[in-house]
Amino acid sequence: MVVPEEPLPEKTMQSIAAENNLSETAFVILGDAPLTLRWFTPSVEVDLCGHATLATAFILFTHGCIDGEEVEFLTKSGLLEVRSSGSLLTLDFPSRAPVRIEPKPQLAEALGAEPVELHASRDWLVLFDAEEQVASLEPDFSRIRKLDTFAVIATAPGEDVDFVSRFFAPRAGVDEDPVTGSAHCTLTPFWARRLGKSKLTARQISDRKGEVICEDCGDRVAISGYAVEYLSGEISI
Fold first, then answer.
1. Which residues does the annotation mark as catalytic?
2. CB neighbours (10 Å) of residue 159?
3. What does pLDDT average to over the chain?
4. What does pTM read for this prediction?
């Protein structure tokens, strides 16, 4: 996350995100609540990002930038809240329940495997039968980039969690995201309906992996996880 001394031009924020070359870089302006928060991949601004929001809240709580155990952000997806309960942080995000659509032959070609179902919200949610199938995917990112969707979420029942997933967004400059809060806005209602339970455990099985606790709350989802401070410094513009 970046906390500029004053609001930065959009072009400058995009340039900083490109230099960082991370899945997303968050920019937050300190001041009166709610705090303005924006997210940029190395190539585009995105409308919703979970892990960068969680990281931003973690730093604000840890460094005493805000009082209390809640922080509100004004974003392109409306008002978002993060609550702190000890070291566990919970994001209050919009639900993006998917609807089932007809199979796309080009999708199986791009993923190198045939899914059992295809669903769509902002992203395409691709269902497989088993965790190992999702783990073993070797996607062709040049083909995924040509698909008519922002990103592709591959998911399956988990072996020791309720579900697993991977997230591919080459059109946004992120071939595979390590952990994706926005994807769980779609995964949570999907698996809640499928499994008949509102509280779910999840794992994103990228190379880095990430554990996620989810709750289906109707038109909202609660996404919980942990953060650690890895690096701090200053950027010269």
1. 24
2. 10
3. 96
4. 0.93
